[in-house]
């Protein structure tokens, strides 16, 4: 998607052929800075410190992390060390494990002398596959938006609510939740996005709004607690969110606060869709609410806020009373019964075991390994 009129991806292989460029998402929306990753350690820190973030992009970064590691030490021990280093960087997004397992399966049978080249080739494939999958999500999600257009009066705008950042910054390109939105916009459909600010890290306010703005998609940032009010007043036609892991039973783990939006949508008869690439499905987890590990992040994300001052400086200020304890659960799980449908690269599925298994039978086999 576009930044200042120029096409960008969130991650890429640099011209030198081996180092990896990535947009530093910690600095957005105030500064557009590209980071250079030159080692497996760099990739691990980039994921852990949220220089990159969003489930699919975490997977892509881990794949390149494995490739960088193979330049350093392509032995079996080196491969294991890289896998072990990267797998512990973030706990909830299953795309991390998926990408690392893919890399390990591709590299294990190969002579160590050839592993670095093979690792870059497989990582590049994972990256291209992400873009293709998201194009599929765009194509499959578009009819949902077109159906709303058909019901509306001519010239009326379709209003979509989204939470967190499941845009192109969370993936390699297109995004998941935003993919149908970008395609609708490209097709000339009048579309407007309600962007939840997404406390405590504000991925909506700082990332989703930034990318929609740069691509020219009309949007409005709202405090997280506004969605229910908008839905009650007919101001949301549908909600589309992303996800960090979908359990075999269709339960959806996503950024904290998603569950509350799903409840409000249910109460108001607003369709609530989840857009996901197949690597986000975890067939090894049968019950999302019980079994998906929920990352707990630093309390500083709750107590402190960073922003730009009137004279242009970036400053962090404390907003919570000194001494008050805080809790920072980074994700929650929306039960499948509150999800209208799962927008995947293979169609819009019912959020249940049978539909997921029928659409992605090959993923069941890998989950059993
Ligand atoms: O903690 P983050 O910023 O890595 O959160 C993950 C997300 O971006 C969201 O939960 C998103 O909606 C799903 S990833 C496409």
How would you concisely characterize the structure shown here?
The chain has 13 helices and 18 strands. It has 369 residues and is α/β, with parallel strands linked by helices. It folds into two domains: 2-128, Four Helix Bundle (Hemerythrin (Met), subunit A) (Up-down Bundle), CATH 1.20.120.420; 144-368, Rossmann fold, CATH 3.40.50.10470.
Report Rg. 20 Å
Number of strands: 18
Sequence stretches where pLDDT stays below 50 over 5 or more residues: none
**Outline type:** globular
What's the CATH C level of the largest domain?
A: Alpha Beta
For this structure, what is the CATH homologous superfamily of the largest domain? Translation initiation factor eif-2b, domain 2
Mean pLDDT: 97
Distance, first to last CA: 36 Å
Helix tally equals 13
CATH architecture of the largest domain: 3-Layer(aba) Sandwich
Defining key terms:
369 residues; alpha/beta; Rossmann fold; 41% helix; globular; binds 5-S-methyl-1-O-phosphono-5-thio-D-ribulose
What does this 3D model show about the protein?
The chain is an alpha/beta fold and 369 residues long. The chain folds into 2 domains: 2-128, translation initiation factor eif-2b, domain 1 (Four Helix Bundle (Hemerythrin (Met), subunit A), Up-down Bundle), CATH 1.20.120; 144-368, 3-Layer(aba) Sandwich (Rossmann fold), CATH 3.40.50. The chain is 41% helix and 18% strand. It contains 13 helices and 18 strands. It has helices at 40-48, 55-72, 76-87, 95-107, 112-151, 179-186, 203-215, 227-232, 258-268, 288-291, 300-303, 353-359, 361-367, and strands at residues 2-3, 6-7, 11-13, 20-23, 34-37, 158-162, 191-196, 219-222, 238-241, 245-247, 252-255, 272-275, 281-282, 304-308, 314-318, 331-334, 341-344, 347-349. The strands form 5 sheets. It has a 7-stranded mixed sheet with strand order 8-7-6-9-12-17-18, with helices on both faces. A hairpin with a 6-residue loop joins strand 3 (11-13) and strand 4. Helix 2 runs antiparallel to helix 5 and helix 5 packs across helix 6 (179-186). It is globular, with a radius of gyration of 20 Å. The two termini are 36 Å apart. The mean pLDDT is 97. Bound molecules: 5-S-methyl-1-O-phosphono-5-thio-D-ribulose (MRU). Residues 53-56, 164-166, 170, 176, 203, 241-244, 254-255, 330 line the site of 5-S-methyl-1-O-phosphono-5-thio-D-ribulose. 5-S-methyl-1-O-phosphono-5-thio-D-ribulose binds next to helix 2 and strand 11.
């Amino acid at each position: 998607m576009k930044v200042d009129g120029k096409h960008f991806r969130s991650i890429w292989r640099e011209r030198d052929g081996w180092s990896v460029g990535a947009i530093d998402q910690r600095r957005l929306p105030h500064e557009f800075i590209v980071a250079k990753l030159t080692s497996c350690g760099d990739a691990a820190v980039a994921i852990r410190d949220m220089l990159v973030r969003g489930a699919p992009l975490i997977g892509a970064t881990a794949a390149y992390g494995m490739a960088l590691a193979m330049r350093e030490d392509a032995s079996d021990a080196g491969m294991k060390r890289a896998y072990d280093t990267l797998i512990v960087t973030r706990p909830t997004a299953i795309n991390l494990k998926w990408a690392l397992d893919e890399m390990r399966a591709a590299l294990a049978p190969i002579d160590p002398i050839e592993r670095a080249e093979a690792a870059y080739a497989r990582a590049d494939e994972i990256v291209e596959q992400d873009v293709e999958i998201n194009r599929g999500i765009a194509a499959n999600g578009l009819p949902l938006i077109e159906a709303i257009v058909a019901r509306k009066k001519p010239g009326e705008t379709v209003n979509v609510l989204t939470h967190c950042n499941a845009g192109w910054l969370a993936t390699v390109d297109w995004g998941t939740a935003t993919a149908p939105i970008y395609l609708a916009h490209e097709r000339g459909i009048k579309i407007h996005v309600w962007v939840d600010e997404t406390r405590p890290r504000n991925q909506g306010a700082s990332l989703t709004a930034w990318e929609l703005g740069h691509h020219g998609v009309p949007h409005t940032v709202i405090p997280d607690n506004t969605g229910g009010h908008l839905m009650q007043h007919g101001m949301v036609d549908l909600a589309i969110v992303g996800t960090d892991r979908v359990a075999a039973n269709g339960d959806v783990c996503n950024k904290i606060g998603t569950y509350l939006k799903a409840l409000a949508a249910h109460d108001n008869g607003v369709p609530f869709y989840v857009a996901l690439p197949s690597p986000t499905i975890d067939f090894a987890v049968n019950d999302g609410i019980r079994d998906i590990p929920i990352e707990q992040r630093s309390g500083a994300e709750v107590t402190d806020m960073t922003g730009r001052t009137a004279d242009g400086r970036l400053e962090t200020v404390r907003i919570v009373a000194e001494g008050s304890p805080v809790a920072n659960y980074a994700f929650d799980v929306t039960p499948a019964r509150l999800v209208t449908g799962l927008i995947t690269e293979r169609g819009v599925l019912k959020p249940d075991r049978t539909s997921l298994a029928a659409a992605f039978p090959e993923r069941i086999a890998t989950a059993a390994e």
